[in-house]
């Protein structure tokens, strides 16, 4: 495989937090590939990992291996209804896979903030500035904890002028309600401290953000079978829609239903809404035509659906989305010094950012 290709279609200034706390590596990060590691403040990344650790102590205080093997087995067999079918499996999935993704998503969102943050006029409703985000397939909590981290990062780097409040709706086919409740609680309440903690540690112990700044709702739906009017209600007023490590699952489940779903989503969304898609690089879906199977890259199918309007042969057919950024393969590498009871992973991903046209 050749070197990663990165194609910026639009200005996306990569930022380094201006007031990043000093990095003090304590343990060796599980670096599986060489390359630059994340420049986000390690202290903040650690706080996000602690949210997972504190939310599900039962999973992380005992040997998680047997449950992990069961979940992995069901995922391998693509038996998602069993893999996501009981609470202990959901918690196991969340503590194993969501923490690394959370840190990766925080970096992605932070780097895209200039594009994604709604302008004051878009977000102002009465006295409150709102940023409305819908996470499709967002049940396992990675995007939610990443957004909590983003709010904290805005607060510590004084970049929160337009972001007084985040409203997040997570929509998922599996029942992640309790996992999300625990993670939300970990974001908006002070983390537990030892009763022997010093007065200084106690006074420095703060929640990531407040409940009034960070609202999360969960909606259990199969997005591929949502009536268009229900989908429209769920994404009403959204500034950002995310499909993180979910789109390829949808394509694999049904290509035609996924295309229909993307078209319904397009119809439901207002001009200016952003759609962020992140997935494994090199994801393919098989399309059967005239008894022959042909594999298409996920991003080709996505561009085909979003960028080519129906009847696009007509010269006057207006595009419904514009593509702002594309990364075919990019690494997120963990910095050193992070502590977590089980393995954390560097991640490789593809990224596609679109904006709904007027
Ligand atoms: C690989 S997980 C990714 C979870 C999370 N977005 C993340 O990045 O960590 C895919 C998620 O999509 C959800 N999902 C799969 N098919 C779905 C569908 N038809 N409707 C809604 N959610 C779906 C799964 O339940 C699962 O939570």
3D architecture notes:
It is a single chain. By secondary structure, the protein is an alpha/beta fold. The chain has a single domain, classed as Vaccinia Virus protein VP39 (Rossmann fold, 3-Layer(aba) Sandwich). Helices cover 39% and strands 21% of the residues. It contains 14 helices and 11 strands. Strands 1, 2, 3, 4, 5, 6, 7, 10 and 11 form a 9-stranded mixed sheet that branches. Strands 8-9 form a two-stranded antiparallel sheet. The longest helix is centred in the first third of the chain and has 25 residues, at 87-111. The chain is globular. It starts with 5 loop residues before the first strand and ends with a strand. The protein binds S-adenosylmethionine. S-adenosylmethionine binds next to helix 5, helix 8 and helix 12. The site of S-adenosylmethionine has 21 residues, from helix 5, helix 8 and helix 12. This is 25S rRNA (Uridine(2843)-N(3))-methyltransferase. Residues 18-30 have a biased composition (Low complexity). InterPro entries: Methyltransf_34 (IPR021463), SAM-dependent_MTases_sf (IPR029063). Residues 8-17 have a biased composition (Basic residues). It holds the Pfam family Methyltransf_34.
């Amino acid at each position: 495989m050749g070197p990663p290709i990165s194609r910026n279609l639009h200005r996306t200034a990569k930022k380094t937090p201006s007031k990043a706390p000093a990095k003090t590596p304590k343990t060796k990060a599980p670096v599986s590939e060489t390359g630059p590691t994340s420049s986000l403040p390690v202290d903040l990344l650690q706080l996000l990992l602690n949210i997972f650790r504190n939310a599900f102590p039962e999973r992380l205080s005992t040997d998680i291996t047997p449950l992990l093997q069961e979940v992995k087995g069901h995922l391998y067999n693509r038996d998602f209804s069993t893999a996501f079918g009981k609470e202990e499996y959901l918690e196991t999935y969340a503590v194993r896979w969501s923490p690394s993704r959370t840190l990766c998503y925080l970096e992605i969102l932070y780097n895209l903030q200039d594009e994604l943050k709604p302008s004051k006029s878009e977000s102002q409703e009465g006295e409150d500035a709102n940023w409305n985000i819908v996470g499709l397939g967002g049940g396992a909590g990675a995007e939610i904890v990443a957004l909590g981290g983003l709010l904290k990062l805005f607060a510590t780097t004084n970049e929160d002028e337009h972001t007084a409040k985040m409203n997040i709706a997570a929509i998922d086919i599996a029942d992640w309600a309790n996992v999300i409740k625990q993670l939300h609680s970990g974001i908006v309440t002070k983390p537990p401290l030892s009763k022997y903690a010093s007065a200084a540690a106690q006074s420095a112990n703060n929640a990531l953000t407040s409940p009034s700044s960070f609202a999360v709702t969960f909606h259990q739906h199969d997005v591929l079978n949502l009536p268009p009017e229900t989908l429209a209600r769920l994404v009403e007023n959204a500034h950002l829609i995310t499909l993180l490590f979910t789109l390829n699952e949808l394509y694999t489940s049904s290509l035609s239903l996924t295309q229909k779903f993307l078209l319904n989503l397009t119809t439901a969304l207002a001009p200016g809404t952003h759609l962020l898609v992140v997935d494994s690089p090199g994801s393919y879906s098989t399309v059967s035509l005239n008894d022959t199977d042909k594999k298409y890259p996920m991003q080709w199918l996505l561009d085909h659906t979003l960028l080519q309007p129906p009847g696009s042969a007509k010269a006057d057919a207006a595009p419904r989305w514009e593509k702002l950024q594309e990364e075919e393969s990019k690494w997120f590498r963990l910095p050193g010094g992070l502590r977590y009871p089980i393995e954390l992973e560097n991640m490789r991903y593809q990224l596609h950012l679109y904006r709904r046209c007027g």
